Amino acid sequence: MSNLNLDQIRAFLAVIRLGGVRRASQALHLSQPAVTTRIRKLEETLSRTLFDRSGARMVLTREGELFQGYAEKFEQLAELVQTEVVDPNGIEGWLRIGASETITQCWLPDFVARLHQRFPNVQVELSVDISSNLREALLARQIDLALLLGPVSEYSIDNLELPEFELAWYAAAGADQGLDENPFGQPVITYARQTRPYRELRTLLMERVGPSVAMFTSSSLSACFRLVEAGLGVAALPVALGRPLVSENRLRSFDPGWVPPPLRFTASYVGEPRQHLIEVAASLALESAKAYRDIKKIDRI
Asked: Does the pLDDT of residue 224 top 90, yes or no?
């Protein structure tokens, strides 16, 4: 029998966990024929048929079910070696990261720099989206690490809590001073409808102001700031991003007596099987988030 190949074992386990060759190929950054070839070669090495291909889906044979337990042990051992023995400079591969726009505009560049310094041979693929889409992409194994409004309530997902973002109310710098008396007589600009901040703000507005408040939504945080600056409405937006615009006299803050709760983010990833690269990346995200928070605290002094 030829030696077992770890890449073939990983392809075998990916097909099982993700439910097919197509999703496995996406997760492994391979073509579908390449995944199929790896599994065929693994079967040739073992002289056993691991999948029953007679139906619409690939189903494990009895031998495949038996081998799955050994394959997982191989994978765990390889992960242990990578964690404790392998030089980070020798770790190669892809890391697919999805991030919300709030994080993208704050500490994401520092995080990517830290990641590249730690794993110089790892290629990073970034996508920016709203948190609900990032959650679905993570559960579908289309990304490896999600930096999103969390946590993701799913048994397979580990969530590392990140520093929160405080919100404040903003209006255009030249807004009428009467705004302080009736701030919600104009539209409230906020996050997209399918997001938690939108739902929380809508509930608070109903409770404190009533149903007459108009809400303009946007999936772009940058667009929200631009609309406020143009005088088209008011908004509760992250202080970390709003304060510089206030100092530039582009926005002004106001206090209606209440503010929506802070934005709470997590670095979320699939917990099993454990993957050293992704776990370290999550911890580096936490370091970057804390460093950004500390810098902003100093800026207030």
From this structure: yes
User: Residue 293's closest CA among 257, 239, 242?
Assistant: 239
pLDDT at 155: 87
- Per-residue CA distances from 225 to 109, 129, 173, 235, 241 (Å): 20, 17, 12, 8, 9
Q: What is the DSSP letter of 48?
A: S
Q: For residues 157 and 269, is the Cβ–Cβ distance under 8 A?
A: yes
**In the structure encoding, which two tokens stand for residue 155, read together?**
């048994």
**Residue 201 contacts residue 260 (beta carbons within 8 Å):** yes
Query: How does residue 29 score in pLDDT terms, banded at 50, 70 and 90?
Result: confident
Token digits of residue 42: 């693994």
Q: Is the predicted pLDDT of residue 91 greater than 80, yes or no?
A: no
Q: Which two tokens stand for residue 266?
A: 């997590």
CA distance 279 to 79: 11
> pTM for this one?
0.75
CA of residue 61 relative to chain centroid, distance: 36
Candidates 295, 216, 254; CA nearest to 246 is: 254
Token pair recorded at residue 19 = 């439910």
